[in-house]
Each structure stands twice: as C-alpha cells, then as structure tokens.
Amino acid sequence: MFLRRWNASCTTAGEESRVALSFRQRHCVRSRTSFGAFRRHGKSSDGGQWRERCARSAAGRLLAGIAAGLALAGLVYGLGWWTGKGSASGSPVEYQQITFRTGSIGNARFTPDGSIVYSASWEGGDNQLYMSRTDDPGSRELGIKDAELLSISKSGEMAIRLNTVGHGGYARSGTLARVR
Fold this sequence. Notes:
Helix content: 25-40%
Number of strands: 7
Strand order of the largest sheet: 1-2-3-4
Number of helices: 4
Mean pLDDT: 77
C-alpha cells in the first residue's frame, strides 16, 4: 500500500524529482529508514535533510543496539551472581604442611591408600623419592636415588625417570622405570 502511494507521488513529480526521490528511497531502504521523511521532503532542493535524517536514525539504531547489548550483559551477570551465591556455603580449604626440610621439591602424587609420594633433593643432595602420610609428620626415603616421579597408577605402581639429564627448558631425558 505504501509503495502505491510512493509511485503515485513520483509520477506526479517532474523527471528530476523522480530520479532524486528514487535515489533517496534506495539509500534509506539500505539504511532501513522510514520513507515518510522523503515524502515530506520530496524535492531535490531539500538541502540534504534526507541525509541528516538517515544518519540520525542510523546513529540511533547503533546506540539502541549498544544499550540492548549492555542490558543483556548486565542481566547475564546478575543471573550468574544470583545463582552462584548460594553454592559458596562450603567449608574453607585446609592446608597441612607435609615436609619441614629445606630444598627443592619436584613432582608429587597421591597413592590409592592416601599416602603422598614425592621427589625432592634436600640441602643440595641428590634427587630421590620420599613417602609421607598426612597423619604422620615425618617422611621416609624409598631408597631410589637420582629418580623423578612421573605418575602413580590406580594399583599403586609408580612410573619414574632415572638418571635425568636436562637439555634446557623443559626438555629432559632419562630411563623410564616402573616400581611396584
């Protein structure tokens, strides 16, 4: 219906106005502006008002889009805060010191029975494996010197690297061994 009125107004106008109106119609269809602005200013001598109206409506749509995005982000943030505030009712984390010596500690793993196995070198000595328990304040040597702990399986077997040689950075080589 609107296009019929549009065509009727174009056929009554002169050839110059029809071309200018057609250009403005295409321009504002691309920028999704209402055609009503051009019917009021249908002459080619409108002083560029149609450009200003198109620019103003595009800027308004941009601001509306930004405002809608910020509102959506605020809603998602508020929803996340509201759903997460009830789940923080757990007890605080507790720490227990396992070793009291000075030195360098390497890898550490929990065994299936709850013990802790770790590799360390104390007071500048050789790297070796130690075992400790959380209920016992001391550690005991496993008797494997120049070893680095890699992993512990569910059955309690340990994968270790013997005679480790560093090649710079994280690159290391050695002999892979299994301890039961």
